[in-house]
């Protein structure tokens, strides 16, 4: 029953992932349309700023999500430490925790810098775009970010349930 339940949950997650990937493709198409509009109306240096911001948006959000996920796994491993855990493993986990914490703080600084850059880009676009186009731009940035988060979350859930299923199947004679 448990194997069947895990397989069913995985199937639902795979289907949800396909929906999110479809939404991401639609978002990318809207992004391309928006890019063409921005290229038409902005000066080359302003367009370059826009493109750098959009490219960095995905990188910084992905970095933050990745570091947060890795940090959570290390914290979970640290919670499982008991009297049988050797000192070397404890030391390794503590060092990884410190490193990942520092890296995540650095990534948060990058995100704050990115947020400032978004305000600058938004100000530039406000000079050229209609209110509706500006609203479309803001919605695009918001949707792109939330889809990245949703994709990462689904991937983590899928990985977790696949590991659970694999471990369960190995335990059954």
UniProtKB/TrEMBL annotation:
Listed Pfam families: ASD2
GO molecular function, one term: actin filament binding
Alphabetical list of PROSITE patterns matching this protein: ASD2
Annotated localization: Cytoplasm, Cytoskeleton
Domain of life from the UniProt record: Eukaryota
Keywords on record: Coiled coil, Cytoplasm, Cytoskeleton
Family to which the UniProt record says this protein belongs: Belongs to the shroom family.
Gene3D superfamilies: 6.10.250.3120
BP term (GO), one: actin filament organization
GO cellular component, one term: apical junction complex
Protein name: SHRM1 protein
The species this protein was found in: Pluvianellus socialis
InterPro entries assigned to the protein according to its UniProt record, in alphabetical order: ASD2_dom, Shroom_fam
Chief subcellular location: cytoplasm
Iron among keywords: no
Keyword Coiled coil: yes
Annotated ranges, domain ASD2: 1-173
Residue ranges the record marks as coiled coil: 90-120, 144-171
């Amino acid at each position: 029953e448990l194997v069947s339940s895990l397989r069913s949950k995985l199937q639902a997650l795979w289907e949800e992932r396909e929906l999110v990937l479809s939404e991401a493709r639609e978002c990318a198409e809207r992004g391309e349309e928006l890019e063409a509009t921005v290229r038409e109306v902005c000066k080359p240096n302003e367009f370059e700023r826009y493109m750098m911001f959009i490219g960095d948006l995905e990188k910084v959000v992905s970095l933050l999500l990745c570091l947060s996920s890795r940090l959570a796994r290390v914290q979970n491993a640290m919670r499982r430490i008991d009297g049988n855990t050797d000192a070397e493993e404890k030391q390794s986990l503590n060092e990884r925790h410190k490193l990942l914490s520092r890296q995540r703080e650095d990534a948060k600084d990058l995100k704050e810098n990115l947020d400032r850059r978004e305000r600058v880009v938004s100000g530039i676009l406000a000079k050229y775009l209609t209110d509706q186009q500006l609203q479309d731009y803001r919605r695009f940035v918001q949707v792109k970010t939330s889809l990245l988060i949703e994709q990462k979350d689904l991937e983590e859930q899928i990985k977790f349930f696949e590991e659970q299923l694999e471990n369960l199947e190995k335990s059954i004679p």
